Amino acid sequence: MTILGIDPGIATVGFGVITAERGRLQPIRFGVVTTPAGQKLSHRLGQIFDDVTELIHTFKPDAVAVEELFFSKNITTGIPVAHGRGVILLATQRCGVPAYEYTPMQVKQSVCGYGGAQKKQVMEMVRRILNLNAVARPDDASDALALAICHAHYAVSLLNIEGRSSECTTI
Questions:
Q1: Residue 170 lies in a domain
Q2: Catalytic: 67?
Q3: Does residue 163 lie within any of the structural domains?
Q4: N or C: which end of the chain has fewer CB within 10 A?
Q5: Total of domains in the chain
């Protein structure tokens, strides 16, 4: 199974692609998609949609794991991220790839065994689980890999996996 993990954002969207076979997790590629700060929100969202669609075309994942939003103090800063998350989910739907959503606590629990783990602990566990030489950078890429690992762990218990088509449709 190939899994694309996505850490949503507007300025920076983290992605991580892994394969999960017979309990072994292998990293394929990770990085970030960035959008220019001076662009209108609609243009940034269009770029995120296009780039996520391209990631799906390139890696042909069986599933996409996306982080659910968590607002701790300032909901206003989360609104643009929610827009970005929406176009990410739209891209997965248009490409026929099932998207699975996980809370930060679920990701930490799955990767570290403790839902209250600190960010550095999660990043180090991602490095160890995927046998990386160094912690994945930037942080958004490491977060995306953690989401993919989380889905790999949860996928064995999912009873109903939706099918997917091989082509994306356009808006």
A1: no
A2: yes
A3: no
A4: C
A5: 1
